[in-house]
Write a structure and sequence with these properties.
Length: about 210
């Protein structure tokens, strides 16, 4: 955003609570209340956006409760938002990886990679990277890590996640704990879930 001189920046905000313990209606009420609380700041000071446990529908609720379509990004297509299938954030990560590999004098084709967190970002990193010829050998979600050294098919992975609810159900994959994802020996490690995954305590990470 800063490089493109876009008026976005600053800190993040969130709601303290466990969305898994809420009904869909309760979650909508929480999001709407949060939006109304910030009404005086939106959109000049604060603009909401989807992130962990917050998707297109939540942004729709936020915008409607705020009374301003400019209150948030990540809205559904019917409200003028970018379609989810474009995977804009994952596309940005993909291009950042391409630039990094160029500096390392590596080709993206044949590059091995792993993705920590198969969500709104990780799903599309898998898609764009494999379409460019990279090999996805490990991916994780909240249920665990799936490892397949010969590489996974991004479309099949999406269907497995959609039907089984976890990437660990990918056929033929070795299943490890979620935290073991970052220790896999790959060329590129993508962290696409919670922050502060890589820190001074993790000396065993081997990815460049």
């Amino acid at each position: 955003n800063a490089m493109a001189d876009l008026p976005f920046g600053g800190a993040k905000a969130g709601i303290m609570g466990d969305p898994k313990k809420l009904t869909p209606k309760q979650k909508e009420e929480w999001v709407a209340a949060f939006s109304k609380l910030l009404k005086g700041m939106v959109p000049l000071v604060y603009v909401a956006g989807p992130d962990i446990s917050m998707a297109e529908h939540d942004m729709e609720v936020f915008a409607k409760a705020n009374g301003d379509n400019k209150a948030c990004t990540g809205k559904p297509k019917k409200m003028g938002g970018l379609p989810h299938e474009l995977g804009s954030t994952g596309f940005g990560v993909f291009h950042a990886i391409k630039v990094a590999l160029k500096h390392m004098k590596k080709e993206i084709k044949g590059t091995t990679f792993s993705v920590e967190g198969y969500g709104n970002v990780g799903e599309f990193v898998c898609k764009f990277m494999t379409e460019a010829g990279a090999e996805l050998v490990a991916v994780s979600d909240s249920k665990g890590t799936a490892v397949l050294n010969r590489g996974m098919d991004a479309k099949k992975l999406y269907e497995v996640k959609k039907s089984k609810g976890t990437v660990t159900a990918y056929p033929g994959a070795k299943v490890l704990s979620t935290k073991e994802l970052i220790f896999q020996d790959v060329d590129v490690l993508v962290t696409a879930a919670i922050p502060n995954v890589i820190n001074s305590l993790l000396k065993e990470v081997t990815s460049p």
